[in-house]
Every structure is written in C-alpha cells, then in structure tokens.
C-alpha cells in the first residue's frame, strides 16, 4: 500500500525528535535511533517511538491535498501472523469508534486471528478509546489497572491502546509514565498500520508508540468485519468547527470527505449483502464535500444518490446546524429509504452561550432551521445533544435552553453536565457554575425530556408503524424489540424468526422510553 510519510507528525526517516517531555527522562537512555524511530530505555522498559501526538500540530489545518489510497493489502508476511491466535477489542465512545473497531476486526481476521469473547482467551487486547469526556478517560485508565494483572500472569499477551485518547499528549505521557506494561499505542489516523505495529510490538517486545498528529490520507478498501443488521459507513473524517469545549478537531484532524464513488460503491455492496439499515457517519456530515476542489457535490447530493440504492433505511449522524442546507432538507423530504429522523445537536438554547461555545449559529437560526425541517418533513423526529452548566451559564440562559426544548419538542436528547477537557479553549474559561447547580439543571432538563418523550409516545398509540426487528429486548428476553423509521424503540410479541425483518406494528401502549405494539399485516398472518 502506498503511504505518504509527509503527513506524519514527528520524526521522519533519519531524523530523531525529542520526546523527553512525555516522561521523566532522568533515568532514560537513548539506546537506538534508526528509520525515524527512537528507542529509549526507562525503568527497565524499552519504548520505541516513531511519532507521538503534538497538540500544537493537531490544531493546524494544512492546505495539502488529501490523497486517496485504494490499494490497501495485508503484507504478505503478516497474512498468517495471527493463525491459532485470538484478539479482543473493547470499544468506548461513539459510532465512529464502533466503526473503527469493525475495520480493526477486519484486519485482525485478514491476518488469521479469531475473535475472543473474553479477555482471558485473547492473545491481543486493544482498548479503542474515547476522549470526549474526562470520565470516559478515567474508565480506560481503570481498565488498564485491571489488565496489568493479566499482563503479569501472561507476559506474552499484547496489550494496545488506540482511538481518540491516544491522540492526546497528556494520555500518552501518562501511559509511558505509569502504564508502561502496555505494548502498543496508536491513534485514529494510522489504524491501517495495525498489522505492522503489531508485528513491531510482537517482535521487539518494546512499547511501540506511533500516533500521527496530522491526519493521514483516506485509505479505501480496508477490510471490515460487520455484525448485525445495521451497517455504518464513514463518509468523512475529522472536524473543522473547533467548538470551544470539544477535543474532536484535535483527535480526528481536519475534515476529509471520501469520494462519492467510493461511498456509493460501499452502500451498494452492503445493500447486496442484505443489510436493512445503513447509517452514514461523520463528525459533521453536513460538511460533506466542502473540501472537494474538483466538483460541487455536497451532502444533499450524496443522500439523493443513496436514496436510489435498494437498501430499506438510511440514516446519518451527526449533523451540525450551521451546515444543514436547504438542498438536504429538500432531498430528505422525498422520503423513500431516507429515514425521517434527524439528530441535530443544539447544545444550548442561549445565543450568548452558543457564542462562547463557538457553535456559529444562534437560538433564532436554530429554531428557523427546525421550522423548515418540520414544514418540509411532516412527522420528522428530532433528537439532540445538550450541555448544561457551560462556563458562565446563568439561570436565565439555562431557562432559554428549557424553553427551546419545549418549543422544538425533541423526542429525546443526550444530556451532559459540562466538564472541561484539557487542551480545549473552554478549559481556559472559568468553570464557575457550582456542581450542585449543574446537577439540578440536568435533573430539570431530563425531567422535561421525559415528559416530552412520553407525550410523543402517547401520540403514537393507535398508529401503525414500520419496525425493523432487531432482536430480543435487553430487559425482557421473551419480548422482541426493534426501531421505527423515526428511531423509536418498539417492543412486541412474536417469534424470533422475525429478527432482521421489517414488519408492520400497531402501537398499543406508550411508556417513557419505548412503545409497545402488536403485529399487523402479513407478518401477523404468518405467525
Ligand atoms: S462540530 Fe461537533 S465534533 Fe466538531 S468541534 Fe463542534 S462539537 Fe466537536
């Protein structure tokens, strides 16, 4: 596979870089410098660094064109590397990470590894981490604490940390200082290098660190191991919005869109394989195509082309209100396989707070967008993400969030108490809303959302809706569960043979977070 090393941060071949800042070097010795890799000996552990994260580089947005590489292949000497061995990946965070895990599973299996259900059976364990919130990071360090015991019992076990946390200088520093029993640290931009990194770690028995601070090119044709009825398809990578509370633009790099022909080919192939639902993924899908220099082709155009492919349902996440344009609304309004569910993170109902968050829209423009969506797509379900207790949020500003939620009538929302993320601009603002006030605001917001959710569910009683049956309910194995086009959770009675099918269900009862219904139509007659 072609690889452009100019996109890599840190040392290029033959040039060593000073990584002293990442750990206490008082006892460290440089023991080797070759091929752009520097090996250090510290506290009895050899650490091989080829490139480490740099917050300063991650902020930059370069002008160099992103290249698309279509010739990915597992190196010949790695094809049987995993024969007789197994791997286990623990995934934290968002669907983007889930999808990255599918890619890594694909690569592991192309190397001959088998998937292990438990840590205990695995020869390689990877933690695919999330950096969005401090507590997500604490969980990973807690997990590493548990894994240390396993590593002591089985020194041959290879233990890796990847994902967004690895893109942070502070995290890499902490791993090198306190968790040096880890064997491998790599980031979000060089997932395709997993086979080579694994080989380096296995052969050298050194802690291998390779984290690119500048985003890589787009690598097509990576193997993927998908499971279930629903498939995720990445349409773009990175984010250029730089909301002041968010670490993603640093951990995932600049916005890079996959070429439409590659996305469409992947969706067609998934349709051919029988997937019932496809979710298009990106940190900000509405910016899709803005980076194309050779054509004018945006997210609305992509959705239009995908609407012609024979897959029953298509969703997308996540949207940024700023880039949500009229063309997209017009395409979504045509329905067909494009589900009428829009996740539209608002974050706050106060223009002042939105300004401090650098969201680049106002309360009024958000409400105007919602009005347009509802007018064009009757029955559209809107869900959101909301932060309470952002630095400086007053009682009045929080009340503006409550009134916006009432006005929009979100079906549901992910709600969060603000907590600072090191390295973001908001971390430098005074976090001056007392914890008790933040908690009370969150409670009131969640209570309101529960009332609105229940009211929306009550309005469904008596309606007949299309449900994709996904499996048994998590709480009641004797009941089947599935989702409507608007992403509502539905419980129903029926045989397991319905799993994977689209059925018609008449809603009979409303609950706060789901509805219950009974089969009608063909599926009911066949039971
Ligand atoms: S648009 Fe989303 S991913 Fe991008 S910086 Fe803002 S919150 Fe983060």
Task: Please explain how this structure is put together.
It is a single chain. Helix 8 runs parallel beside helix 9 and helix 12 runs parallel beside helix 13. The protein is of the alpha/beta class and 527 residues long. The strands form six sheets. It has a nine-stranded mixed sheet, sandwiched between helices. The N terminus is likely disordered. Strand 15, helix 8 and strand 16 form a beta-alpha-beta unit. Among the domains are: 206 residues, Methylthiotransferase, N-terminal domain (Rossmann fold), CATH 3.40.50.12160; 65 residues, OB fold (Dihydrolipoamide Acetyltransferase, E2P). It starts with 28 loop residues before the first strand and ends with a helix. The chain is built from 14 helices and 24 strands. The chain binds iron/sulfur cluster.
Using the 3D structure, state the CATH architecture of the domain at 5-210. 3-Layer(aba) Sandwich
Please tally the helical runs, counting DSSP H or I stretches of 4 or more residues: 14
Bound compounds, each kind once, are: iron/sulfur cluster
The strand line-up of the biggest sheet is 1-2-3-10-9-8-7-5-6
Keywords: 4Fe-4S, Cytoplasm, Iron, Iron-sulfur, Metal-binding, S-adenosyl-L-methionine, Transferase, tRNA processing
Organism: Paenibacillus pasadenensis
Domain TRAM: 458-521
Subunit structure: Monomer.
